[in-house]
Queue: 2 jobs
Job 1
Amino acid sequence: MPLRNRTTLTQYLIEERRRFPGSSGDFNALILDVALACKAIARAVAMGELGGMYGDHAGAAGAAVNVQGETQKKLDVLSNELFIRMNQWAGHLAGMASEEMDHPYQIPAQFPRGKYMLVFDPLDGSSNIDVNVSVGSIFSVLRAPQDVIDSGRDVTEQDFLQPGSQQVAAGYALYGPTTMLVITVGNGTAGFTLEPNLGEFMLTHPKLQVPADTQEFAINASNSRFWEAPIKRYVDECLAGKSGARGKDFNMRWIASMVAEAHRILMRGGVFMYPRDNKDPSKAGRLRLLYEANPIGMVMEQAGGRASTGRQAMLSVQPEGLHQRIGLVFGSKNEVERIERYHSEPSEQQNDNPLFAERSLFRI
Ligand code: AHG
Ligand code: MN
Ligand code: MN
């Protein structure tokens, strides 16, 4: 293989840091520790059945169920431990929160505490592990509230409830045919490919841009009977193709690994929807705001795409709970804006009014 002078993740971070001459270097060290956790998870995932992490047929971690009421896989638990182990010791963090932990994780007493907080989904799409389909990790970096930094006190759930616009950095690792790390530190979105011989992430996709238009959408159509009217309308118009209102044919994809879908959309455009629906009124959507929607939202927006609840910009949502669920739409800007328009049009807002319900006086 010809030797190419590639930028490493370390070099990229150092060059980004030069924009802030006073910075301590803590932030860069934190991102490198996150990257190390992702490399370790990539190895565990790549071992598959051989790693002993599948165990029984379903790969479930005994009877463990996480705070979402979902069965934890052994690899979910291992990935969570790797994130903690790689990130707790260095003194950059005031605390952590994860999909796999009910409450915030406190930095143990033997380690110094720092000014950032790390929030993560250690293994996203883990229902795909047993079938050898791509999975990933998602992370978000927040600044700890000033009194936490000053006092070094334990973090509370409340400390994490910051809108996505406050994220200092966000990204994901994708464990696919190649392992990739895609990050934003607030100055565009960049993609790195793991060079397995050197164990280094190399900058292969600088300045990623999501095309504003697309003819590809992703949604779990088995939920269609529970969708709200604006989503039904959008998908119906896509399905009608050339002969319908959109006047063009659409293609559809559903991997059930959001990281893999986000990556496809970053590479070639598209729109992803896991909207709020009427399936389970106690859940405001399937995906989680703090460690799924917000970090993917920042990655998208920094690449010129858009992320939304359908009703408002995702990054402007004020979180109310650590494990809060939310409807998520992201990807090509013009399509996401169209979906937002469908939600805001008066005819759709009248849906709650019985006079405008299905088979009512005013609807045919
Ligand atoms: P997780 O494995 O962290 O619980 O998240 C899986 C998510 C997401 O990656 C994917 O888009 C979605 O769940 C798939 O949901 P369906 O099974 O409803 O298609
Ligand atoms: Mn997930
Ligand atoms: Mn997960």
Job 2
Amino acid sequence: MIRLDKYLADAGIASRRELKAILKSGAVTVNGVPAADGAAKIDPAKDRVSFRGRPVEGARRVTLMLHKPAGYVTSTEDPRDRTVMELIPEPCRRQGVVPVGRLDKETEGLLLFTNDGELAHRLISPRWEVEKRYYARHEGTAGEADAAAFAAGLTLRDGTVCKPAVLRPLGPGESEITVTEGKYHQVRRMMASRGLTVSYLRRESEGPLSLGGLPLGELRELTEEELELLYNITKSNL
Ligand code: URA
């Protein structure tokens, strides 16, 4: 819930001070009812706010899940490579969504985008230690000793110490890895430290969110239920 005047100011309608007069004039409605009180709280996800009869867009909180394909860097601009922003339709880009967290250029899978600064901040905080589950194809075959080393907390070749993680061998050259951190090239480096060089990596889930059947390269808005789960778990990690 946010104040109506902040919502309107964020949407670029006018400054907080100018909004006083605008609200008094009856030009703003919430769910069809004129709203004169800038301090009134609204829920941007549910309430319909209009200014001079037109819906106020842009300030709506938008959180999206993309099934990222390989070949795109997770960044808003890049001098050489294609960026994940190229996969976001213009209307969403105009709403100010940015990637949350990072997947390597060659990694596929679940990548979140949001224009909710507070949510983004909470999601990338190291305190948000949610489980991120990956599917990997790799050289060699993982076994019990590898799983035990992951569970104990690996030390990488450069001395980086990783938190305990789960390695589940799926068969020759295939494993599922679950980590709670997001260090640079983490899964690839963890696997390499066991001689299991990764040739393909896909993030299947992040906290309560899963790719499900979302096709490669496509994106969708999170459902109300997913958003609620996300807000709840990030709140408890503050
Ligand atoms: N670990 C990696 O090595 N790469 C990613 O993109 C994500 C996790």
